[in-house]
Design brief:
The protein has helices at 37-49, 60-70, 86-94, 113-122, 134-142, 158-168, and strands spanning 29-33, 53-57, 74-77, 103-108, 126-129. By secondary structure, the protein is of the alpha/beta class. It has a domain at 29-149: Response regulator (Rossmann fold). The protein has a five-stranded parallel sheet with strand order 2-1-3-4-5, sandwiched between helices. The radius of gyration is 18 Å and the shape is globular.
């Protein structure tokens, strides 16, 4: 006997009646790079289920090659990898004209100030520490498309902009 979980029936709630009225994020082309194959596959699958087009790579050299062929909007790049580390892979990808507008995110277990500084120097736009908070990743993916690097004097920090905007909103009325 096979038992399947029940799925709630769709509701006919009027638009605007839900707690979260934000539209779903626009689909992105996302390259997930991690030498942990299961981790890369799981993250790519989650992003695909959310409507994104995904590819995976499992070392720095493969990341450079796949990125050149796929030309992703967003690259989630582990730092500690074989063959070519994430810092050098990021530098090589950033050296390509098509990559100026790509958002490259360090996804690593290394989260000290020195690690973040090295990520910024290598050309990463963001530095997320594993395990990556899914909400932080969704905010990042829902953000505006990347702009050409260098216009704001350094790497983008969209998460800080979103956090600042959230703090600026008035508190909801209790009632």
């Amino acid at each position: 006997m096979v038992r399947l979980p029940a799925v709630p029936a769709p509701t006919d709630d009027p638009p605007g009646g839900g707690a979260d009225e934000r539209p779903p994020p626009a689909a992105r082309r996302v390259l997930v790079v991690d030498d942990n194959r299961d981790g890369a596959a799981s993250l790519a699958m989650m992003l695909k289920l959310l409507g994104n087009e995904t590819r995976t790579a499992h070392d720095g050299l493969e990341a450079v090659d796949v990125a050149a062929a796929f030309r992703p909007d967003v690259i989630l790049l582990d730092v500690g990898m074989p063959k070519l580390n994430g810092y050098d892979a990021c530098r090589r990808i950033r050296g390509q004209p098509w990559a100026r507008g790509a958002v490259i995110v360090a996804c690593t277990g290394w989260g000290q100030d020195e690690d973040r500084r090295r990520s910024a120097e290598a050309g990463f736009d963001h530095h997320l520490v594993k395990p990556v908070d899914p909400q932080a990743l969704m905010k990042l993916l829902a953000g505006p498309p990347a702009v050409e690097r260098g216009r704001a004097g350094g790497p983008l920090d969209l998460l800080a902009q979103f956090d600042a905007a959230d703090r600026a909103l008035p508190a909801p009325e209790s009632g």
